[in-house]
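User: Okay, second chain of the day. Same drill as before: sequence in, structure tokens out.
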Amino acid sequence: MSVAKRYVLRLFISLKYVTANVVDRQSGRIVTTASTAERPLRDGLECGRACNAKAAAAVGEVLAMRLKVDGLAREPIYANAAKEVAKKGFKNQTKVWAILNALRSHGVNLHIDDDGDHRPHV
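Assistant: Same drill. Structure tokens below.
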């Protein structure tokens, strides 16, 4: 197994919840996680909307803070944006990019494999 991509980001998006996990590929364990299913995060969202782009961005922010606490914010974390969008469907594209942009903006060393799509994602 390649040690180059040790930590990978996995996203789970349902009609009700957004969950983001960072997985250590060497041990096969989840290193840290954040989800709108968690009561403190869910209660902080407006109108109980736990699965929109704002909620996804909040999940990204919480995950970034937890990565910093665990000392993993400087470690390279890999995400395949095109694969995640293809798996989640085009209508969830804004949620995927909200999580990725929140992680980037909070100082996480995120490496995005986007299959040659080099447009700015806001």
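Residues 33 and 113 are 21 Å apart (CA to CA).

User: Thanks, on to the next one.
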